[in-house]
């Protein structure tokens, strides 16, 4: 009996160990040197399944932007695979996050003149959007009067839950979904089998809204009488209304986006024949992985090296310094600015004082009726001050307007907590970190967001007059707001945390209170309790800025089919504007002070000027390879990114000599006395012209350029120049961000080709 019991126990333990070993399995992305495939295997898949893992564990095979596969492996299996001489690298799958009608005009786009007419609105260009899918029935995606699908398109329309081939048309030319990485991850401690079909569609259909919004921002058709519950009414249209859309659903509702799926989407999009890729996704941890461990950087390199422009969002962790993500120099990294439209609401206290804020509340107004004010945070309980779920005492808040602090939970969810506890309204107060940066929300109760100064003043009035009361007055939509653009306080800031020699972000575009199409699956707040349906929604984030640049790239590519991705980015950067609509230097929303290139990069996108930039700073694959050599990546590491073996030159190149349209001069922080650095740049011109240099040196810095004149002719289309930046540490005073800023422009009487210059003292990383 006892020996039988022992055997049972032993078998049970064995089973438990096997189950827990399986449970420690996770998705690994494996980079293979494909040139070493033995010829006995007909395909790479046969080789991978014979030599490295069983067919059942393989999720994706990559063969275009990346060579290798992703598979479900235990750490032990992954370690043994790594020992194989053909394996260049292996890294764990990671979850990433989305960087959640007037903006085309605000970019300097006017009808029938300039860029829109010259490019036939980008009708031959295909934009691939990597996001949460699309709601194809929206008017923004009509194919009325569009020509046939471009012949070079090789993509497909994948069918799935509530998505048939009929959902693609001449506007949405292709749609795919990528869920294997997501399903493998959810199988552990998540929903077994991966996709929660009660809230998601296993198809390209959008259950979240974000993807529909970004796709229509880049390329939505004209939609008349567009609004979000009456707010921002007018004509909604994307930046490139005739461009075609290819949808790659890589992000899943409430679950983020997995690297293995993103990489598979890059692989597919490049094979399908897209011209532009728009990716409003980043690693939300504020820490950027090195390029060889970052599938967005790797996938984007594969795309850019084949002439596809990739636009990415900078992230929403501003105004903290060094918060910018998506840093690879082949990516175009986009921050967010405001537009000249706002949705003002006022908090009016019983002493007559008025505080201005922002709201998109569209329900029954308060009609000037005063209600008692309460601030649950005065108890000192953090969850109550933030109006977190179940933190409010109904006896305290019933029938009152509740002051809630911003942070930790979604802004609209706080209003729902107040509503459930019996409150009649909410004042949402920014903390110090958000400063005066406000975004509109479609609140479910009468609510108004106010900046931290206003919030503090309202709280101190309540503390001194416990019987205080207030009301909220909603003022609808106001256009012609000045100043605009202003750098949004949430927009992620430089310097670049991986390679400060490359200034990031590259530029900013409209990203605050942007009206665009929305899904039918959820209400405008995305909350389960929000049963409203809306054709359009108003969102803010660098997620919204990125597709503005994708649409702009489509128009530029349509007008200049021979331009490389680097030339398109250069045209946008060197013509970007630095002033707002009051003709003053652009401000930073969080500090109310003039913004710097760490906030806006080269400036705010100005499409009319980008059409004819004069000179461009071009880059080839070889330039990027020598940059990777310069930052001391070894040949094997570089091959992970570039797919082909490389040899770095004997003389190590300098990373700052990458032919980038901006210049960052880094001096060691301990340096004393006079020190100087010289940079080389090469510009390409398309017409005969003579350019002269104009220098605005950073404060306390000497900048010289040789030669000071560039003469282009029929035979001379490319010319180089040297820039020498000299500092005297005795006279150099860096500003709050630890740098000083200036610029260098080449001027021919018609064009101004401007590059920002950043000078900083920094310890080498």
Beta-strand percent range? 25-35%
Principal-axes shape call: globular
Poorly predicted runs are 7-22
Given the structure, what is the number of helices?
A: 19
What is the topology, as strand order, of the major beta sheet? 7-10-6-13-15-16-26
Number of DSSP E strands: 37
- Portion of residues within helices: 10-25%
Major sheet characteristics:
7 strands, parallel
- How far is the N terminus from the C terminus? 66 Å
Mean of pLDDT: 90
The whole-angstrom Rg is: 27 Å
Summing up helix and strand content along with how strands pair, one would put the structural category as alpha/beta
Structural account:
- The protein is an alpha/beta fold.
- It contains 19 helices and 37 strands.
- A seven-stranded parallel beta sheet has the order 7-10-6-13-15-16-26, with helices on both faces.
- It is globular and about 75 Å long.
- The termini are far apart.
- About 2% of the residues have low confidence.
- Keywords: Glycoprotein, Hydrolase, Protease, Serine protease, Signal.
- GO terms for molecular function: serine-type endopeptidase activity.
- Belongs to the peptidase S8 family.
- This is Subtilisin-like protease SBT1.6.
């Amino acid at each position: 009996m006892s020996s039988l019991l022992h055997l049972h126990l032993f078998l049970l333990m064995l089973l438990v160990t096997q189950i827990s070993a399986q449970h420690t399995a996770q998705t690994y992305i494996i980079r293979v040197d494909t040139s070493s495939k033995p010829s006995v295997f007909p395909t790479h898949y046969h080789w991978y399944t014979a030599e490295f893992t069983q067919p059942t564990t393989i999720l994706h095979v990559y063969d275009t932007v990346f060579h290798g596969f992703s598979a479900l492996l235990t750490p032990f299996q992954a370690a043994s695979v790594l020992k194989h001489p053909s394996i260049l690298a292996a890294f764990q799958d990671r979850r990433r996050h989305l960087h959640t009608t007037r903006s085309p005009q605000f970019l300097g786009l006017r009808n029938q003149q300039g860029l829109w007419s010259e490019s036939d609105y980008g009708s031959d260009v295909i934009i691939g959007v990597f996001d949460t899918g699309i709601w194809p029935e929206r008017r923004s995606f009509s194919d009325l009067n569009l020509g046939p699908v471009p012949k070079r398109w090789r993509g497909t329309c994948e069918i799935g839950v509530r998505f048939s081939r009929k959902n693609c048309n001449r506007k949405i030319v292709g749609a795919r979904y990528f869920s294997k990485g997501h399903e493998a991850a959810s199988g552990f401690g998540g929903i077994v089998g991966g996709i929660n079909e009660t809230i998601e569609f296993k198809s390209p259909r959008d259950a979240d809204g974000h993807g529909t919004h970004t796709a229509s921002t880049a390329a939505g058709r004209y939609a008349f009488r567009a609004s979000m519950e009456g707010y921002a009414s007018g004509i909604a249209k994307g930046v490139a209304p005739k461009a075609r859309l290819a949808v790659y659903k890589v992000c899943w509702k409430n679950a983020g986006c997995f690297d293995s799926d993103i990489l598979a989407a890059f692989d597919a999009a490049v094979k399908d024949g897209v011209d532009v890729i728009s990716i409003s996704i980043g690693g939300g941890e504020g820490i950027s992985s090195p390029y060889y461990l970052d599938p967005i950087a790797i996938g984007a390199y594969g795309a850019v090296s084949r002439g596809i422009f990739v636009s990415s969002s900078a992230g929403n962790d501003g105004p903290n310094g060094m918060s910018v993500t998506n840093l690879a120099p082949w990516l175009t990294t986009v921050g967010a600015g405001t537009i000249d439209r706002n949705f003002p609401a006022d908090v009016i206290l019983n002493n007559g004082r008025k505080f201005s804020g922002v709201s998109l509340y569209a329900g029954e107004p308060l009609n000037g009726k005063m209600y008692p004010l309460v601030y649950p945070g005065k108890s000192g309980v953090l969850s109550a001050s933030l109006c977190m779920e179940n933190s409010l005492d109904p006896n305290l808040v019933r029938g009152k307007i509740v002051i809630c602090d911003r942070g930790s939970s979604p802004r609209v969810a706080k209003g729902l907590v107040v509503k459930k506890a019996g409150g009649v309204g909410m004042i949402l107060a920014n903390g110090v970190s958000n400063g005066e940066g406000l975004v509109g929300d479609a609140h479910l109760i009468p609510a108004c967001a106010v900046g931290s100064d206003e919030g503090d003043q309202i709280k101190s009035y309540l503390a001194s007059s416990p019987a205080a009361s207030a009301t909220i007055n909603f003022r609808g939509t106001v256009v012609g707001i000045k100043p605009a653009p202003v750098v949004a306080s949430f927009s992620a800031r430089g310097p670049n945390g991986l390679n400060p020699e490359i200034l990031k972000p590259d530029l900013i575009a409209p990203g605050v209170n942007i009206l665009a199409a929305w899904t039918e699956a959820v209400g405008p707040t995305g909350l389960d309790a929000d049963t409203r349906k809306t054709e359009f929604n108003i969102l803010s984030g660098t997620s919204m800025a990125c597709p503005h640049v994708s649409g702009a790239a489509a128009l530029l590519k349509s007008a200049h089919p021979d331009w490389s991705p680097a030339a398109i980015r250069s045209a946008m950067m060197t013509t970007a504007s630095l002033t707002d609509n009051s003709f003053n230097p652009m401000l930073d929303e969080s500090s109310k002070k003039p913004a710097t290139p760490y906030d806006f990069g080269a400036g705010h996108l100005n499409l009319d000027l980008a059409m004819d930039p004069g000179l461009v700073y071009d880059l080839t694959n070889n330039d990027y390879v020598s940059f990777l050599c310069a930052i001391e990546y070894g040949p094997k590491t570089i091959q992970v990114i570039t797919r082909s073996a490389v040899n770095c030159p004997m003389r190590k190149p300098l990373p700052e000599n990458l032919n980038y349209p901006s210049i960052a001069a880094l001096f060691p922080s301990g340096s004393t006395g006079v020190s100087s650095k010289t940079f080389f740049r090469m510009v390409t011109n398309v017409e005969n012209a003579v350019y002269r240099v104009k220098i605005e040196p950073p404060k306390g810095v000497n900048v010289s350029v040789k030669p000071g004149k560039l003469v282009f002719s029929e035979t001379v289309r490319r010319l180089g120049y040297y820039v020498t930046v000299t500092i005297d540490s005795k006279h150099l005073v860096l500003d709050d961000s630890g740098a000083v800023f200036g610029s260098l422009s080449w001027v021919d009487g018609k064009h101004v080709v401007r590059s920002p210059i950043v000078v900083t003292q920094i310890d080498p990383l």
